[in-house]
Each structure stands twice: as structure tokens, then as C-alpha cells.
Amino acid sequence: MDAASIREGVKIYGTGETEVRALDGITASFEAARFTAIMGPSGSGKSTLLHCLAGLDTLTSGQVSIGDVDLGSLTDNELTRLRRDRVGFIFQAYNLVPTLNAMENITLPMAIAGRSPDQAWLDTIIDTVGIRHRLRHRPAELSGGEQQRVAAARALASKPDIIFADEPSGNLDSVSGAELLGFLRRAVEDLGQTIVMVTHDPAAAGYADRVLFLRDGTTVGEMTEPTAERILDRLREL
Amino acid sequence: MLRATIKSLLGHKLRLLLTTLAVTLGVSFVVGSFVFTDTLGAVFENLFSQTTSTADVIVRPAGDFDTFGPQARPVGIPPEVIDEIQTVDGVEQVEGSVFGVVQILGADGTLLGTGPPIIATSWTETGLFTIDEGRPPEADLEIVLNRALVEQQGFTIGGPVTVIAAGFPETFTLVGTATLGNLGSMNGVGFAIFETTTAQRVLGIGDRFDTIQVAAAQGVAPEQLVERIQPLLPEGFEAQSAQTVAEEQANQVKEGLGFFNTFLLVFAGVALFVGTFIIQNTFRILIAQRTRELGLLRALGATSRQVTLMMLGEAVAVGLVASVLGLAGGIGLAYLVRLAFEAFGGQIPDEPLLILGRTVAAAFAIGVTVTVAAALLPARRAARIPPMAALREEEGRMIGQTRRSRIIIGSILTLIGVVALLLGLNDLVPEAVTVVGVGAGIMFVGIAALAPTFARPVASVLGRPVALITATSGELARRNAMRTPRRTATTASALMIGLALVSLVAILAASLQATVNDLIEETFTADLELDSLSLQGTGFDPSITDEVAALPVVGELTRIRTATAEIDDDAVTVAGIEPDRYASFINLEVSEGSIEALDGDGIALESDYAQRHGFSVGDPIEIIFPDKTVTLTVRAIFTDNRTGGRILIPMSVFDSAVPQQLDVRVLLRFAPDVDPATGRSAIEAVVADYPNVALRDEADLRAEATSQINTLLSLIFALLALAVIIALLGITNTLSLSVIERTREIGLLRAVGMTRRQVRDMIRSEAMIIALFGAALGIVVGVFFGWATVQAISADTEIHLAIPVGYLVAGAAAAGIAGVLAAVIPARRAGRLNVLEAINYE
């Protein structure tokens, strides 16, 4: 079964003359234990797709599912709980709560749920992202790369069905960016995690198993086993 | 720069409104106080000029005596004086009036006149009253009452009214209703008007008068008459033109209103003081949020002076808006106070509210000055924002004073405040009351300056129990409260002021209560007392006491009678006692001489009174009673003055000097082996026929003292509530701004799974922590105030400190809950934030 899917998804912002069809009848699915990148020019609807898949935004029409759950049938509270228990997030910036230290940020979704984390799993993740020595530090005391790695650890900590990442390396220098992407790659390979990532950087998309190309709110092709060069070539065609 | 100022103001309408509200409430209170007291003042001025217009000259007691009441000259004007004045050339009409208080039975049988008095007087054509309906009283057993009282009680003209006359209930016939000018009644005060002889009998003053009204013949000036009448008057009385008397009365009322006004203005001052904390905090937060914007202005070439002026310009605008709103609010408040006044039985003629130019000027002066003064410090800090701030990615934190200088300044201010407070309280400086107020203010500022240095640990501790209730939301709230210690501290400090004053009042009340309770326990050794429910010492007929004394359940019993007399040109209350028995009931703590030695021609004095007038044991004292002057010798000095009178004379002397003999208080013990409940019900059965006699035991006395203290307490609490409400607005304000500031963070929390409810919990928990912090500070300061005040009072009159712990804890809990309520709006806003928009908020 797919970890997430969207069928005939339409998302319209505004009405009349100012109407924008951000998603225009898009259908796509995302396999479990795979790393999918979503690419496309500005305004192609890639961020909207991510937000709708993650339950942060709702479709005008069409259907979105996470696992076997149809998001359209959920109330706000049920959506919130779904995000908390079954979805992980990594945003481009501002991923961490400034008053909490790194460790507290990582376990935040579980604290909100009132659950205690699986300590062995936590140790695995913390060692994988390599931030054990920074756990007691506040976000303000961490570098940008460290902050994003903490965010990634948080996304993984609750063993979500799927992680959505929105330009996770967008604000990082190339070395930190590569480290983070490498870590996400390992999470898929070693830990069987499912990741969907929006990016405009072909190098970043190169870490994925599959790239989905978007334009004008719909899919215009995909590529498996991508490399940065092949992606660049394809983007030029679009 | 002006345009930038206006644009920036309009850009933050909500914040502007919230800031304005704090000043608006304070200004409203000032305006309301002025408008209400001005209106009342005008009403009285009209009243007095109208009512005395028919008399031209008034004869009345000279010196510091009132026309009636406890300070009235006890020796009335003999009736011959009227005949003599009648013969004076240029006199048209002469009438004598008597004044006093009376009790009547209400329609449901309860005694009226035990709270607000019912003033009894004689009917005169030249007097103050006009008949509204019916006719004036013409014969004995006829009565006219003021209209409001008749309406309130449902009396009918021609129907019966029971009056407690000379110690006994008597049935009168209501023949009419009257008004005083256009005034129905004032705050429940009633009027009972009798035919002159009846009034003299009811009030027990023989054939004498309290005042004489003289109408002049055509073409005779009042001043001429005054000169002709004065030589005819007995010593101690004077003639005055009616106009002078009216002016004096109006001035007295104005003085009373002035006091009332000052009283209200003190609370308005407290409210405005709290308001400055709120404004200062709001401006500081707004400036911090606009650091980049201000940095940009600086980068574009604005001087730091221009930035300061821009900030102050905003403050002036906020002050102006607040003044306009406050003016409107104050007028509304005055209207409400008037309604409330009427709801409690007062009647004010339908005159329009009086809004003087002074009131409008005060509104604007106060509104603008307070706002600008509060904005000064934040504005100066805004000027220090460097142009580089515009380029920084993060919203820059404002650089405040260093921790050290903050501690030094705060400590010095606190110390100055404490010293001023103690000096003032103990009367060691001139203008002590002002010094106390200013000292308390400085102390508050000092503590508010210190508060940020310990806000973090305190918020951490107070946050723990809160976090236990609301779990992760509470923990995040705790961190948020600790994250901006200065904001938390200033917001809490505003609440501190209200709670400190509330705690002070609660402690004073508890101390007073405890002292009174101990006193009652110590000195009240009777099983029961019979008390005439009268303010002015009108008693009940001794035959009632005789009836009670004859009951088998009654053992020992003693009577106390009181009368007004004159000693050393002062009106004093003299109590007639049965020396031996009195001493067995009340422990007088005699320091010199003995009470038993009173019999014959002795007098006992309370030590303070004796000291002030320079009397000691063995001295002769001349006491002028209305019909007789007696000379007695001081035989005892006692220290207790709180249970009985200050001047005690033997009953034999009292009875020979005072014509009307009524028992005011009777103390009794049950016969041996009588069960108190049985005894009491036997006595109740007798007293039931006399509604002017109340039965009280120790518990009743205590309950009575408690209810008196509580009445006063609730009034002060109601006024202090304003300061607390403004402080709560401060919490609303601070948290609203914090929510705006933390939009992205809230978005993130929502994205990773926090429900709307949990977000609301988080904001409400933070409000609770801030409120508890403020309450804790306030209670600590309040306890200090309470201790200092009780110490100061004890220098004069011994009272002991009692801390009402339960009450204070309940106050803190109430503050915490109120904090949660204050956070309803920001919490809702936070909960409603759209997750996506919040995440992408710049």
C-alpha cells in the first residue's frame, strides 16, 4: 500500500479574476520506504501539494490519503492528531521551539501527545544525526545545520508513517546541506522511513529514489534513480 | 516624520486600542468623580438657596455646635426668647424649631432609622419643608413624612404610622407628605415632621427650641434684625442672616463632597499609576517588535532625536484618544453612579450632569501626561536602536540596563519608598498622608524595577504546579514566562499594586476584627444586653427593663442611660450608671480612684479624655444639662473607653439632671442554673412587643462588628477592583502582543501536532503564571504595608496584627483565575491561527 496518495487533487485560491489553480487535477502516490523528491518551477504547486498531503491545507476537490486514512473526512482535531502521530515535518527554517533545548524539541510531538518516547529508538536517531553532544543546547546556541538535524531527528522520533520536508537544506551551506540529505537518505535505507521532499535544488533531489516533476499544478513526468545532471536536463525541457 | 508616526499608529490599531484602554479607565474614573460631585454640589447649592428663602434671620447655637446630632448644644433656647424677639421692631413672624432623630416602624414591622437616620422636626411655616400632599401636622399624634419614605414603605395618608416616642411605640396618623426643596430624600435619610409640642415631647427636650426662624417685615434688612436680636439671646446662641446660614450649609456639604471627591480621586490615582505600567510595557514591546523598522528609519537618515520624537508623538496621540474616550466613559460612569445611588434609596433631582471646563481640562491633562510619562523610557531606548538593526535577520532584542544597575536603582528606590512610608505612617514628617502615598508609589516602582531580576526563578517555581495541570502546554507556558523576564515582571508588577492594596485592607480589617473580638471577650461579661437601636442615644422606657428584671430567669442586671451635656464648651455624651453593678459587668481598668466611690457627687473619666482636658482625681467639673447645671468631683480615671461612655456619673445625679429618663443599654446575667437558650427566649417573649429594643449576646456583638467591618471592606474592594481590572487588561495586552510575536512558533507547534485547545491552554497557563507572580509580589508587599500600618496605629490605640492567611491565599487563587480570564482573547486568537499562514508569517 502507498504511504500517501492524492487523486484528482484540485486546490483553488481566490475567486473570479484573481482565481489561482495551485493544483489542477493532480494524481500521484508515494510508496512506503522510499525517498521521493518533488520538483518544478516557481508556482508549479509543489509546496501546495506538500501542504495538502501533510494535512496542513485542504483540497478544493479530490482526495488525499495518508495510509488508509482519507484526510478529507477528518475534523481539525483529528487532522492535528494525525500530524502528531503519523506525520513528521522538516521545514526550510524555524523548525524548533526556541524555549526548548534540542532533546526537548526532538520529543515535543510525543510530549504533546502525552506519550513517553522509545528510548532505544531515540538513541539510534540521535546517533545517526550526530547531535548527542548538543542535546542540552537551546536552538539559539546551535548552527543552522545542527538545527535542521535536530528537526530531522524530531520528525523521525515518533516513528511516523511519512515525513514531509519542505526545502530542508534551502538555508544551509553546501556541506551542512549534504550532511542533512545524507542523513535523510540513510533514514530511508537503514530505518525504512518514507520521505517526501520538495526542493528546487537538483543536487538535493539527487539523493531521492524518485523525482516527481510538477508544472501548473499537475505532474508532468517522473524519474527514478535520478542524478543531478539528469534532473538538470529534464528541468531544462520543462 | 509626522506622516510616519500616523502611518505607524494606524498600522497597529488593535494594539493602540489595548494601550489606550488602560489610560481610558483611569481618566474615566477621574472624570466620573468630578462630574458626580460637581453635580451633587450644584444640587445642594440650589437646595439651600431655595429652602431658607422664607426666613430672613436664624437664631442658633454659637460655636462648634451642630443644629442637631451628637454635637448639638444640649441646652435649647428657652421659649421666652421667642416672645422677646416678637417684640423687636421690624419682625414679621417668629417660629421655633426642634430637631432630632426618631425611629418609626416600617410597614413590615421592622425598625427604621437604625441605619440612615430619620430626622424629626417641628412643622413651621418659615421652615425648610414644603407639603407635597395632604396637610401639615396640626394636632398631637399627627405626622408628616417625606415622600420617598412613604412611597418606599407603602404608607397611606390617613393611615397609621408607629413612632417610637419617648421610649415607647405610639400610633400616629399620617396626614401628609413633604419634600425638602426638590429633594425627596438623600441616601435613605428620612424626615418626620410633627406639630411643635408633639415634636418637643417625642424628642424629650421640654419646651425648648433648637433654632428660631425670624421673618423680617417689609423693608427691614436681615442684617439690621440680626443686630437687634443678638442682645436678647441667652449666652451661647447667635443670630445670623438666613443667607449666611445657607451659604455655610452649602459650604459644609461641599466640604463633605470634597472629601468624597478626594477619596474617589485616590482610587483614580491608583488606577492611573497601574495604567502607566501597562503603557510602558506595551510601548516597550511594540518598539522591540519594530526594531527593524526603526533601524531602517535610522539607516535612511532619521536622527535618534527624530525617533524619540516619533515615539512620543505616538504617545501623545494615544493619550489624546484615551482622554476623549475617558471623558465619555467618565460621564457614563457618573450616570451609573447616580443610578446606583438611587437604587440604594438616595434621590437626586433630575438635574443634568454638570461637566465643568475644569473636568475636561483635567481629562486631557491627565490622559496625555500619564501616557507620555509612561512612554518616555521606552522612547529613549528606541532612539538607541542602531541603523544596523535594520539589516539583522533576527528581530533584535532591546538592550536594557545591565542587571547590576537595575539591582542598584531598584534597591535604592525600594529603600526610599520604605523609609518614606514608615516616616509618614508614624507621623514623623509634615504632610504625612502625602508622604505615605508617594512612599508607597516609589516602593512599587522600585520593586517593579527589581522584579525582572528574579522573574525567571519565580516564574519557574510558580509554573511547576501550573505545568502539572496542563502538561506540555503548561511547561511551554512556563518557559515562555521565563523567556522574557522583563515583560513578565512588568505585567505582574501592575497586578502587584492592586493586590498589595487589597491585602493591606484585608489585613487591617482582620486586625481590627481580631482586636474587637478580643475586646468584646475581655470586657463583655454579661450574658445578654438590651440595646436601644438608636444612633443618638434615644432609649427605651425603663418600665420595659422593669418587666425584664422581674423575670425569674434574670439574675443580675444594670441599666445605662445617656444624655448630651456640655463640659468646657463641648457637647459630650454623659452616661448615667449604677456604679457597683456597672463595674461587675464591665472591666473598666480603673487606673486611679475607684468606681464605687462615684456614689453621691462623683464622676469617672476615661484617661484620654481626662488627660486632654487636664482633669485629675479630686478636681471639680461643671456639667451643664438642659435644665440643670451640676458640679461633680472626679473620683476615678479608667483606661477602657471602647465599651461604654467616656464620662460616667451616678444614676442618682443623672436622673435629677435629665428630664427624660430612658434606658439606652441594659446588661444582665441569667439567674444561676438557667440555660442560656431558655433564658434568652423568656426575655425575647417580653421584648417582642417593643421593636425599639434589641437583644444581643457576645456572638451577636461580634457578628455586628464583623458586618460593619465587612461593609467598609466591600466598598474599598469594589474601588480597588478597578486597579486590578486595569492590571488584568495589561495581561491581555502583553499576551496579545506575545501571540503576534510568536505566530511562527505557534504555527510550528500546531504543525507538529498541538491541538487548538492545547495552544489555548498554553496561553492561559502563561497568563496564570504571570498573575500568580503579580499576586505573590502584591501579597508580600501588602503584608509589609499591613504590618507597618498596624504598628503605626498601635502607637495610638493598641491593635494587634492578624494576617488573614486563608483570605490572602484565596486572593492569589482568584488572581490566577482572573489571569486566565484575561487571556481568553489572546488564547482564542492563538488557537485560531491558520497553521500554514502562521508558519509562513514574517
SSE blueprint and pairings:
The complex is a heterodimer of chains A (238) and B (842).
Chain A: E1 2-13, E2 20-31, E3 35-39, H1 46-53, E4 61-66, E5 69-70, H2 76-86, E6 87-90, H3 102-106, H4 108-113, H5 119-129, H6 144-157, E7 162-166, H7 174-191, E8 195-198, H8 202-205, E9 210-215, E10 218-224, H9 228-237
Parallel strand pairs in A: 3-8, 3-9, 6-7, 7-8
Antiparallel strand pairs in A: 1-2, 1-4, 4-5, 9-10
Chain B: H1 2-11, H2 13-51, E1 57-61, H3 80-86, E2 91-97, E3 99-105, E4 111-112, E5 118-122, E6 129-134, E7 142-146, H4 147-153, E8 160-165, E9 168-180, E10 190-194, H5 196-203, E11 211-216, H6 222-229, E12 237-241, H7 242-289, H8 291-299, H9 304-343, H10 357-383, H11 403-425, H12 432-483, H13 485-523, E13 528-532, H14 542-549, E14 554-567, E15 570-577, H15 579-585, E16 590-593, E17 602-606, H16 607-613, E18 620-624, E19 629-638, E20 647-650, H17 651-657, E21 665-670, H18 676-687, E22 693-696, H19 698-741, H20 743-751, H21 756-794, H22 805-822, H23 824-832, H24 835-839
Parallel strand pairs in B: 5-10, 7-9, 15-20, 17-19
Antiparallel strand pairs in B: 1-11, 1-12, 2-11, 3-4, 3-5, 3-8, 6-9, 7-10, 8-9, 13-21, 13-22, 14-15, 14-21, 16-19, 17-20, 18-19
